[in-house]
Amino acid sequence: MENDILMYVNITQSENVESYIYLGQRYSTRDKNQDKEIQRRIMARRTAFAKHRDIFNDNIWTCLKRHVYDSCVLRAMTFAADTRAPTTQAKNKLAAAQTKMERSMLNITYRDRKTNVWVREKTKVTDVIEQVRRRKWTWAGHVSRIRDN
Which of 15, 66, 135, 145 would staple 82 via disulfide (CB 3.0–4.6 Å)? Predict the structure, then answer.
């Protein structure tokens, strides 16, 4: 262990951990590039998508599927993204996960030979990378308006 400092709370020695989850976000002392947090967000997306699988797989209008996706799945995928520094690799993982879901919404596979641009034109869902960028700028605006007393 790097940190051999013992910490006590009410005469009870606290446990030394490498990572922990606080308010839904994973914090780590070793994972500096947030790979595991991105994986957690993708898993949260899978969970949210699976909960609404009957909507996404049925013969329901795409506009309703888009609304459920933007309301539930995209929120789970971008939770706390405004406080993370997005890397190119993380952006690519999020974009790939989103494309996979969009294809599932339209009940098509890669064998159908439809381009990602065509899929996006059909689903018209909010781009996850654009959503992360918007949230970061919104957060930056909030922080810039904070007044120190």
Answer: 135
